[in-house]
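Justification of computing resources. Each target in the renewal requires a structure prediction run like the one illustrated here; the chain below, 740 residues long, is used simply to show the kind of job we budget for.
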Amino acid sequence: MGDRTHAHTGAAGGAATVDPPPSLRNVVLVGPSGSGKTTLVEALAQTAGAVNRAGRVEDGATISDYDEIERRRQRSVQLSVVPVVWGGCRINLLDTPGYADFVGELRAGLRAADAALFVVSAAQEADAVAGAARAVWDECAAVGMPRAIVVTHLDTARTSFDEMTRICGEALGGDDPDAVLPLYLPVHGPAGADGHAPLTGLTGLLTRRVLDYSSGERRETPPDESGRAQLREARDRLIEGVIAQSEDETLMDRYLGGADIDVETLLGDLERAVARGAFHPVLAAAPAAEGACQGVGTVELLDLVTGGLPAPQERPLPRVTPLHGARPPALTCDPEGPLLAEVVKTASDPYVGRMSLVRVFSGTLHPDDTVHVFGHGLAEPGRETPFHESEVRVGALSSPFGAQQRPLTACVAGDLACVAKLGDAGTGDTLSGSDLPLLMEPWTAPDPLLPLAVRAHGKADEDKLSQGLARLVAEDPTLRLEQNQDTHQVVLWCLGEAHQDVALDRLRSHYGVRVDAVPHKVALRETFAAPASGRGRHVKQSGGHGQYAICEIDVEPLPQGSGLEFVDEVVGGAVPRQFVPSVEKGVRAQAARGVAAGYPLVDVRVTLRDGKSHSVDSSDAAFQTAGALALREAAADTRIQLLEPVAEIRVLVPDEYVGPVMSDLSGRRGRVVGTEQSGPGRTLVRAEVPELEIGRYAVDLRSLSHGTGRFDRAYARHEPMPPRLAERIREQQEISPVGV
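Resulting structure tokens:
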């Protein structure tokens, strides 16, 4: 972590090595979209010698954005792993998408990693850092992830490292802005024609040495006399910030008393503070210039990762539950311990089939091992997922390097590996030894709340649709597939519009299934607004065996949620006993089809009070038909109300967006039922809103709150629809009688 030059070896080709946990680092790069995470991975890989030259995102030639969908969109949409070797350590760099629609990939990366590099662009506005960047920061904080901050795009005009550090301290530092302080100050070269001075090096605050990259290679020089005052001020503030987090309570007194605290002591306290998540050092970085072999700040970043961020054995393991009454073992990150691993990502490879990215937390995983797979999927709010378990033989192991797979003889505790053909194991499933089955506590998957109704484009697609959708959902657990029995639609629930687009693109390009998006329908209901009576007469004589059934019914509305009640009050055998169930069957069948606009009839009591029969021509089918006719006649004599589903929603937003959110909900015919504080500066708004009004709320809330708002929803009940809206729905039904 100091200003040292390390020997390094490449990691691009050949078989992957098996390294012990102290020599491993799992670091996830996180940050908002456009902050430069993928470009930084390229720069770090080039500096470490893993690649000869860094690829460019706009050319579709980067290591981590290897999927054809990513190349077309010039945007990361999935988690990828790029291992490099530096300073005697193997670093697994996990590149994650920054766009909010792919937060599931971000959470998978956080599960696989032990520390994070939080990447922000100096070109971003303060609102963007407080919005999208804060949302990603909160994701890291929720799992206790140690973080260092990397400021990029300092080679862009009108950017300032000092200003971005200040913004990060205020937006991300919480109650203590001094928990976010720079380790290095940027050094800029002569200003160009646009007045902007390019980034040429860094000044180490602890070592007081300049790291000059202007020649294309890193050189150490003493600081310029003109900058010593700024260096001293920044260094004093950094030392005070580190000492404030020190576990040695005497250190501050010694420092304030004028004692010179040695650098190694400061580095040790800094490392421990970062590991606890109490301090977040800030560094600057830029990709290598044309012809240069090292990007500015990349050596310092790699030094920080190997010397200042925690190794796997320094991080606590997720909570584990033993199965089948076994005694819980004391697990640590020990290659010799019991096997404990987890599938953090599932993908389909066109050549080898299903591939699983596995993080091993304890023990060692070998090819051809038989492991116990126990899964409950990922924990989604409000949804239970079925448990499943099986014994599976492990296929070939490999170490991923972007799209490449390098053979691996074993995967030890603290490392990552791709496993081919791991049976039906899905994302979030636990792998353990057959002799000691274990279950890890799952991480929480985001609840997809944007519906996308689809239908097969053609006959050939119909045959492949079910299998293609099942494989798509297995690969991406943030998608949810629904076969809606009320609207007869296939609905793919997504996290946002970009997530929808990628899902359809992947369905077409990976699985050869073309679908058409159709308007999403909401399950409406019908009910009687007032009591009514009906007479069903089904009499036919056409020679031979005829049909004869007459029944008279009364229909009255019931309270919401009552369903449909059928009461038999026939006296004197007007309707023979054996045909009363036939009338009920006909009534229920007609109620399921609807009596006005084609929606199921609910919350009514149907009373059979009279009827007639024929000793020869009456039958089960005849009385079913008569029952249906009686219900339709009763409906024609009264007003039928349309009922719409109402959802309970909870919206969590920063305080400054509470007013706009409540106003927006009111405009959606919503009723705000309460607000409450939910942490510093955030408010939870509870409301009831018709589901017809919140089909696109996942997109609209993101726009309204600048990416800072979240919500969840749950069905509450059906309520009468306003008459004007109900009339419009009926008019639409005359054109398309299937649904809304």
